[in-house]
Amino acid sequence: MTRQPLTMTNSVLDTLMPMHLLVSACGTIRRAGPTMSKLREGPLAGQAFSTLFTVRRSRRDPTGEESFIPLNQKLHLVFCDPPKTSLKGIAVPVLGSSDILINLSFGLSVVDAVTDYELNSADFAATEMAIEMLYLVEAKSAVLEETKQLNARLQGAKIAAEEQAYTDTLTGLKNRRAMDHVMERMTSSKVRFGLMHIDLDYFKSVNDTYGHAAGDAVLQTVGRILSEETRGDDMAARVGGDEFVLIFNRFTEVSRLVKTAERIIERLEVPTIWEDAQCRISGSIGITTSDFYDTPDVARMLADADAALYLSKDKGRACVSVHDPAVGQEAKGAPLGPPADRAGQQAGRLG
């Protein structure tokens, strides 16, 4: 039985091998498949094969004659001009002609090629295995993007939850848990810091006279004042109903801490207006610093600052006391009477 030579129309070639090249014996491209044509601007027909491609691992063909491209063996090509996409394929002689038919594919570079040339599934033969890989890549990319967005949402929720867990919702200051965490970190890392314990004077009178809504307004004003009197790397915390702790990072000069405390007292004594009422409070403050201790201990420092605070209370309130373990407690400032009895006076007389 005589075999008839296989013939293909151009449309068949384009369907089965959309990345084919038909090249003359002298190396001129005579025809290019539709996908191959998309890889470069302008028509490929008429251009020299050697100006478009570099042949890797080129060697003599089986006849021993030097050829511009090896026949009947695996080809490794790369475009001469950017993007220098790598291609794989095979070249075979065309029966009854001196032309060479080259069928190419992207191989492992298909993912980059799809992006570089904006290709889609219609640009590949139906039997091209790269299509399956593209589907997998697209599915993986979709999953990774969804996972990335989910992780971002989870991280945001985690940060929000942690922030809420460490924040006093009424004043916006940190809470006792945050204070404990910061002090433990600073003592363990041997960071120098000043510690200030504040208790509001006459706050109960505001609650009893005007109600808890007025008291909340006063506490919010106190929170704002303490935030403004601390720096970005300091911490202001509400640790009880009307108790506050300030931690001053690397700020341990007693005279300056006392001046800061006196300024806070002065600002606290400015009445908070609630409806038609003037809500008047003051503050008693106790101070200690990490410099006073060979080995700073959180519990001891808090106890000492608390003791200094109550010394201020015993002295008549509205003043600041310093606790130095080496010399005992020292009161600073002259206590004044209830703020309702001294409207318009200047708290600068504390000095």
TrEMBL record:
Gene3D superfamilies: 3.30.70.270, Haem NO binding associated domain
EC number: 2.7.7.65
UniProt keyword annotation of Protein biosynthesis present: no
SMART domains in the record: GGDEF
Record's keyword terms, sorted: Nucleotidyltransferase, Transferase
Catalytic function, reaction form: 2 GTP = 3',3'-c-di-GMP + 2 diphosphate
Recorded GO MF terms: diguanylate cyclase activity
PROSITE patterns per record: GGDEF, PROKAR_LIPOPROTEIN
Record-given protein name: diguanylate cyclase
Record lineage: Bacteria, Pseudomonadati, Pseudomonadota, Alphaproteobacteria, Rhodobacterales
Gene name of the encoded protein: yegE
